[in-house]
Amino acid sequence: MDEKMEFEEFLEKELRLVEEKKYIRARDELLQWKDADVAEVIEEVMDEISLNAAIILFRMLPKDDSADVFAYLPTEDQLAIIDGITEREISYIIDELDFDDKIDVLEELPANVVDKILEKTPKSERRQINTFLNYPENCAGTLMTPDYISLKANMTVRDALHHIKRVGMDSETVYTCYVKDEGRHLIGIIGLRKLVISDGSALIRDLMMTDIVSINVYEDQEDAYETFRKYGYMAIPVVDRENRLVGIITMDDILEVIEEETTEDIERMAGVVDDSTASYLDTSVLHHVKNRLPWLLALMLMYIITGAIIAGFETTLKEVICLTIYMPMLMGTGGNSGSQSATLIIRSMAVGDIDLQDGWRVLWKEIRVSVLLGIILSSVNFVRVMIEQHSDPRCFLIALTVCLSTIAVVVAAKCIGSMLPMLAKKIGVDPALMASPMISSLTDMVSVTTYFLLATMLLHI
Amino acid sequence: MDEKMEFEEFLEKELRLVEEKKYIRARDELLQWKDADVAEVIEEVMDEISLNAAIILFRMLPKDDSADVFAYLPTEDQLAIIDGITEREISYIIDELDFDDKIDVLEELPANVVDKILEKTPKSERRQINTFLNYPENCAGTLMTPDYISLKANMTVRDALHHIKRVGMDSETVYTCYVKDEGRHLIGIIGLRKLVISDGSALIRDLMMTDIVSINVYEDQEDAYETFRKYGYMAIPVVDRENRLVGIITMDDILEVIEEETTEDIERMAGVVDDSTASYLDTSVLHHVKNRLPWLLALMLMYIITGAIIAGFETTLKEVICLTIYMPMLMGTGGNSGSQSATLIIRSMAVGDIDLQDGWRVLWKEIRVSVLLGIILSSVNFVRVMIEQHSDPRCFLIALTVCLSTIAVVVAAKCIGSMLPMLAKKIGVDPALMASPMISSLTDMVSVTTYFLLATMLLHI
């Protein structure tokens, strides 16, 4: 906690220094901190003061540090900085980045800038970059790095350690080494730990693990995450269709995927379409409108049906106008009950606790839960209606209508809320779309229908 | 993808074999797969066939594999298996587990079982286990493992590698080594990579990094996750108040934390209280009721206010009964608009894109977005009302009421939806509680009030 407090204090101070244009002092103090901290300061300067101030501060960093700091910045901030610095500086930074960070930045840059940067890159690396840039979005290929240690099966441990000493410093992870045959096929894996504790003259062939978990380069990044989750490895090799090793994915790259995928899920569950990874504040007003309009409009149109149902019961309504008073409560409770179930099921499916075969068990559980909840909630409602309507001679019947509707609505909402996400999954639609907004709109129809039907029957209208 | 398909096929076959009680063949085929896969098969047998079948299969595993497979099982399944095997088998498995897995299992076991297991544990380990068991839930201390390599500053690289060779195989991660002084204070860090590529006679003191990011043992696990997220390290040391090294947390332990914390957030956002980590199907009906009742009931009671507002407008309603038709649409659209904003803000705050100082920028953005959305949605509504009510002489005024209400409701909902989570954070309440259910109930009040007020004014009732 102390470290965090200390950093917060430092951040305040830095913002003050930059605001007073004391850049030199701001820079000098900055250099005492870690790259990730420096990046956070620059991010905050950009947000709180101005892009220009952030660029000035960034350009004052020692050349050696600038690429490392750059790698820690969020993509939008990286692009903003690239717009503000010279081409020479861009080239230098891109050059210094780790291969996978390099690809991430190049992917977001306009084609003409990428071309200019690639012109200055050595031919072999240029070819490799181009291959990486061509992987479809969100596939394992876009997460991987080609910087890994590769060994040969007939090397001795001594040879291998010598080889690592020579090339090791450039590789993002040397802790797992990959053994390839002549055709670049992945045939084994050996950890640096094993090399260090083994006899120098032993052959890699005899020490390596041949029972390998790998990911196909075109697999979805969510599947890559699943593989990490299941096996708990720190790095997983990526192979092409012929089982040739093309790169590795390390666990820190997966952390970002988890965050992205979770945000996407949560946003979908609230009826927000989001096709970019830009942050809330960096998304324009028009883009926010575009992201939110489709679902709002679609759901609003669904209420034409609910409206028509109410219109059909106009006589009932005219007769007992106080029925309107309890309509919002019924709709709200239905929506909330349904959303609870939908959320629990969507999340359970996402983390693998439930699959489609569990359908009946889920339904049976939801029915029992909802009957119990319905009875408790409707007894509270009974008291409420009896108090509020005690002057009406039909108060008991009205209370009965509200109570029976409550039970029916809660049970229906929980069944719809739990089954719809599973049904969505079955037909290949993202279950997250069947969350709160969709469920509420559907349960509103059920609530209104049940309520007025029961009222018509019980009150003999 | 092929590997996955292959596993699914194998799983089906295993389930069939177990169902036919061909345990020996099931076991033999199982042994060709990885521990994580074996664990998944046992999990599925438990879910799909029976606990007994799963226990039989588990007990048939070779002794050496059983602890590794056990470590991959979810906690509930581990406890179920422990209930079904002998004390001797329990002791053996617990003994073989990595230290942090051991703590996880012991934490869940009843005290008398733990005591029995500890009786057979060597004294020094028993003391260590007891210390670990006493850390409060959800703190960094419960995630860490004491299995790490510690070096001394005056060792040479050769000494260090020799030391690692001797103790290395037992440590969960030897890739980062920790340098301690006589008082067990953490004074430096050095990666195995650095050791391997450095000269054998160099001193650790001269190679180690002294600029260390560490976590306090009592810090919340969510803060530990933040630290991993910020710096991207594979392992982070955990220290006590005197900066003495007590353990390390590795990134794979953090993956589980992320999942737990995200589930908790998502559930809270849907008004579900959940105090356990048990899966949906393993939670009893009564427990589900207990988790869902508080919010359902509280929100239902809030509708007493909405009901009272409607009751106050009974004359207006009686006069223009068709107003009721558009009430669900307005409430639904208000709820959905508010939920969208609330979700975006809650998530943005959770991943650190927005903090409390951004309040005014967020509000200004939401106002512009909501005015635009309101205008689009209300023009659709205008057409709808004009068509539906064309026989009513007051149809234009009714349409105007609905349209103006739509704009007002969307704007109000987006302001409430975005500001309430920030306000919650400011006063130290979890923003996730201010999501969809809470926001919908509040916007329902606003919708009803605005709608009937406008109707009364425009229609001169």
Notable features of this structure?
homodimer; 461 residues; mainly alpha; 3-stranded mixed sheet; 67% helix; 7% strand
Note down, in words, how this protein is organized.
- The structure is a homodimer of 461-residue chains.
- With 461 residues, chain A is mainly alpha-helical.
- Chain A has 21 helices and six strands.
- Chain A has helices at 2-19, 23-30, 35-48, 51-59, 63-72, 75-84, 87-96, 99-108, 111-119, 123-133, 157-167, 192-197, 204-207, 221-231, 251-269, 285-312, 314-319, 323-350, 359-388, 395-426, 436-458, and strands spanning 148-151, 173-180, 186-191, 215-216, 235-239, 245-250.
- In chain A, the strands form two sheets. The first copy, chain A, has a three-stranded mixed β-sheet with strand order 1-2-3. A three-stranded mixed β-sheet of chain A has the order 4-5-6.
- In chain A, helix 1 (2-19) crosses helix 3 (35-48) and helix 3 (35-48) packs across helix 5 (63-72).
- The first copy, chain A, starts with a helix and ends with a helix.
- At the A-B interface, helix 1, helix 3, helix 11, helix 12 and helix 14 of A face helix 1, helix 3, helix 11, helix 12 and helix 14 of B.
